[in-house]
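Entry type: protein chain
Record version: 2
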Amino acid sequence: MTVDPTNPDRAYVMNTGTFMTTDAGKTFVPVKAAPGGDDYHQLWVNPTDGNRMVLSSDQGTVVSVDGAKTWSTWYNQPTAQIYHLAADNRFPYWLYGAQQDSGAVGVRTWSREGVLTFRDWEPICVGSESDMIVPDAKDGNILYGGGAGRCDQSFNTAASLGGQLPPPDPKDPNRKTWTLPEVFSQADEALYYSNQFVFRSRDRGRTWAKISPDLARLNPAVPATLDPITAKDVDQPMTDRFGVVYSIGPSPLKAATVWVGTDDGLIYVTRDDGKNWTAVTPPEMTAWSKVSQIEAGHFDAETTYASVDRHRLADSKPYIYRTHDGGKTWQNVVAGIPEGAYVNSVKEDPQTKGLLYAATELRVYVSFNDGAEWQPLQNNMPVTSVRDILVHGDDLAVATHGRGFWVMDQMSALRQIAVKGAQIVSANAYLFRPGETYAIRAGSMNGTPLPHEEPQMENPPSGVLAYYWLQTAAQQPVKLELLDSSGAVRACAASDAQVRPVDTETLSVQAIWVQPPQPPSAAAGLHRYALGGAVGRGAGSFGRGSGPAPAPDACTPPAGAAGTQVANSPTRGPDGAGRRGGAPSLPPGEYTVHLTVDGQTYSQPVTIKPDPRGAPNGVNDGVR
């Protein structure tokens, strides 16, 4: 409740709606409420002007300047509270997640309009506000969630195949918690779901079977953090068991092996398709330790990782348990993760052994040595609660509780660090091998672009993304080149390229639309730079008259030298600064990246693959 500092008879009560009284509580009227059940939490009223106020909710923050008659929008804020995330196998792929009090959503990770906006974000047909969403590996439009739920996103409607979970056991009624796991097995595409029991469907939800007994802890002690009155406030029929199976980790190597963890501190494994379950809980894990994620190993069937959250017990330390012997012994491997960063999820990179990622209450952490040491993977992410994490191809994606989805595009350099870290950091310079690269046909908004004040983010970098490491700052200009199979330079970028300030006197638009791309860095550290792709905003010309000729840089051939003079741009190529639409500026084929540092040249090959979507209907431009 908040009382207007300028009027003691006017007060506001926040719940699923916000209600106002102007007669000291005799009557209340809703001033901000919707059928979706928005949850409002705090209200600030200006101490000198009661008409001005700021209201927070699960969706975001809104402002009123007229005494709650009208409110601003929260759609200009990336404040989604996502519990878990999943990705489909389309191109470009979509991310899915259930968001608190705003329903489940799907979002493209690349937009055909050139920038990611609200147009790429849409409600989805299953998942509600807390269920896990599971895309079908063979058809990204088919989504599963909530157990037997199935829908077709292309219609935005339910698409049940008639399957139902087994009926509840009257002697052990089904229990629930806010978020229950659902996951496809990578080994055989069996679909798993749980409450206190584990269920499995082998036919994509047409039929379901119960494959476990009640796996929750028997007669757990009342947590010391609960007072007696709260401990008795149980909203479900429970007697001797209270927990649920909170995480499921099918082995990607052996279809019959499935690991599970409960929200009351137990870990089980079955190695015979659910016929028998063995308790393999670490001895030090006590009741009400929530196994927030269990990750079966991708390289060894006896390896598993379990993240454990104990903040409900007033214990905010991180816990990541690792076993290499099928659960006989466990080690808590969290060196480098501080107290306060309790762990919500742990994942193993499916392509590189020993490379682990942890989603914590503060940020993402990475380990290059199987959990022995961790370090922050912060970059440009704000400090926020990271609830889930997944690896999709060469991308690392996370779900945050309050900042929506985030993606680290083309993070293959992390894999190379895990394999060759000592060699890389000891080298004067190192050029990483580029990851998977496509000749993308970039689209645009084709007309008036979305105003820059609206929330938006440019697409992931196009062209060839080059990562490079410099142990110390280069003494001479750093040069990056992209050569085709004939040896011709198709793109070049140099650290000494001059970036002139935008001359606003010559523009017909705001300067934000013509921000020039920056050259590659010559400073010490790890850097990345996109070669040969569209440069995004600013690729067009909005000036009144031509500007001065660009100054020579390390990409400029010496006077009289043979070779191709590439077009002038911080990223130069035969097609200039890149195109916002049409055929890709770099056709598919074999290329080589060159990095030149202080007279030494380093090389890595890269294959540019055709756009997986093919060519537009009827187009024959020679790019396949």
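Comment: The first strand starts at residue 2 and ends at 3.
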